[in-house]
Amino acid sequence: MFKSYVPKPGRREYFTILLVGVEIIFFSLFADNFLTASNLTQIIQNSAELAIICIGMTLVIIAGGIDLSVGSILGVVAVIVGNAILLGLNPILIVFIAILSGLVLGFVNGAIVAWLRIPAIIVTLATMNIGKALVFMLLGGAWLTGLPPVFNGLTTYKILGLPVVFYIVLFMYAVFYYIFTYRPFGRHVYAVGTNPESAKLAGINHKMIQIATHSILGGLVGIAAVMYIARMGSVEMTVGHDLPLQVIAAVIIGGTAITGGRGSLVGTLAGVFFITIMKNGIVIMGIPSLWENSIIGTLILLSLTFDIVMQKRVEKKKLMTV
Amino acid sequence: METEELLGLSNITKTFGGVTALEDVSLSVKKGEVLSVVGENGAGKSTLMKIIAGVIQPNKGELLINGERVAFHSAKDAAGKGISIVYQEPNLFSEQTVLENMYMGEEIKSKLGNIAWERMYKEASAALKMVDLSPDILNRHMEELSIGTQQLILIAKGIYKKSQLLILDEPTSILSQAESEKLFELIDQVKAKGVSILYISHRIPEILRISDDIVVLRDGKVTEYLDPKTASEGKIISAMSGREINLNIYRPRNYADKEPLIKVSHLGNKKLFQNISFHVKPGEILGVYGLIGSGRSEVARTIFGELPIEEGQIEFERNHLQHHQMNDAVKKGIYYVPEDRGTQGNFSSHSVKWNLSAVFLPLLSHRFGILNKSKERQVVQENIKKYSIKTHSQESLITSLSGGSQQKVLLTRWLVHQPKLLILDEPTRGIDMRTKTEIHELVLSLAEKGVSVILISSELPEVMRLSDNILVMHKGEKTGLLSRDEMTEEKILRLALGLAS
Fold it and tell me: ipTM of this predicted complex?
């Protein structure tokens, strides 16, 4: 399985893993109650939604795009799921509806990007705001509460001491590792992100890739929306507002190049844990949570600076070998 | 010996805008032969190759493969008929591995549709062995390899794909001597297997060595077929260069007794160019001629301060230029009109006015740097009128103008500053004849006013028409400096191709 010729993560990703290690050591030393079984289980449970969405965001960013509307998609789907629960629909049908509605919303983003050739950052900025208004409207200005605990088992039921959502995350990463590495589609996503012109000459349909990556992201957000309901038991007014920042931060810190063409799931998963552990540690250390977003923002900047420095070094090396 | 025809072209014509790139071209490639296409820059070789590879479509004429008429709508169509092309500029995915690059878009798949990495690896290793590359590099990222190695990898891919026809567009321009030798051996091997090769190169000795037939293109037309067994270097060069050049436009100027404005001595920059020396006097036009990759634009960009002065020195108005930067150059009166209008020159989403005035806004400002808008309009209008720039209004988008008018905007905007040294890089590429003449006229009149001009061009007639002296470069080296009395087309071409004159 790990033959040298199969594409694998680069050195950049190992750097993120190292970073997570340093972070764990830091909080173990300075935050009481960090290194306890219940807190670590909590971290894994809290990371599940982010982890699932980040798979899709990794695909989108590698293909050269971006999606700012993930929070709004999550909100809209969560409202749909909440109402479906109130209607007493079959849970399996609800999951199906969640994935499908996410997929459709993602498809809309992808279709506008590909067919109208509007940059993804603008399209999804627009759909993000439309989505926020839609959630507000659907909720009628109040939280959606009193949901029967149909999905609570996802977080409360434990196998080997770990919640079900952990195994769902594990399964999804395995599936997408396979897609990234062994399906032509996965490699074509990289190709389009690296060099769209060359991809065209190689007969790769880059519009199809853009639409597919956005749709897959939407579908994954649908799954995350079900997990959100399972965790919260309600839908709040500001559902998903911080999500785009966290998702993009996790993917970028995980080593995916914002310019496309480079990145891996291993790195993304490390990025997800980095963000979740940091949020958890901040709370335990009693730092006001309003610092959270500014710390994440700083980390994005540091990460991008690091990438640019590395890129410059590669270019310098290249110049020497011409 | 008559062999079967693999590819036939009849009466192919291709125009871009108003410019005819190919006119009524007919030729034939037999199975298992190497047909070389030679011609000066701009003769239409690359356009021809792109038509055969399906990348662009001709306006007229037809393509036959094995006697059957075909119409290619994309590169994929052509690939489906067994035509592969290796471009002069390697076309690749820099952040992916070599193995992925070799199979991108045409992966070997298992029954389940998975990528069969192991089978691809084995096949690719065999392909690389043919070009003497170790299979170890298959795991490396393309961006880590030298451009020559990248090129060899793509050639190996083209050969291994079991093509019927392999098009090589100046493959040796970025290969080392040893790599080139390897390529020639390979060409012999694949030829023996019945694969045909269309070969473009500027290097006459290698063409004589590997070709079975040589076709000469001149100004978009096939002018001659030459037999490599009997043709000499001289014959090929005169066939390439046999066009009429009207030199009447040139007017002698009196600059000879002046002190040089700029003196460049032993200028060098790593592997881009070495030991370049020349000087330009006020009112002199120095032509710089060389093939792509000769380093001519790089020399110009060094004078303009875009590239650092690594070796040698530049003296401008008797001062040594040190830590020379672009804004210093502009302050000193050195202006550069770049090669690529679209990406380096224009502010493409802005108006003609915006583009024209962008470089002289400080001259139009009130105190405290506030722009005087009516003055801006007035100066722009004067320029448009004076240089007959064809535009609907000054508010029209620059991209709505013809290529020639866009170039005039780029050129004339510097004139407001009264330049001392104007560097023009390919000032008339892709521009219609009339505007071209107007630009030539403009350049001459500038020189008459005492402006020094460095004119870089791939078009020999243009360089010969305007220049007082011509600096010829080949592979980063100065191969000659010819005065007006010495310059002949053949002489310049020989120097540019690196042949002894």
Answer: 0.82
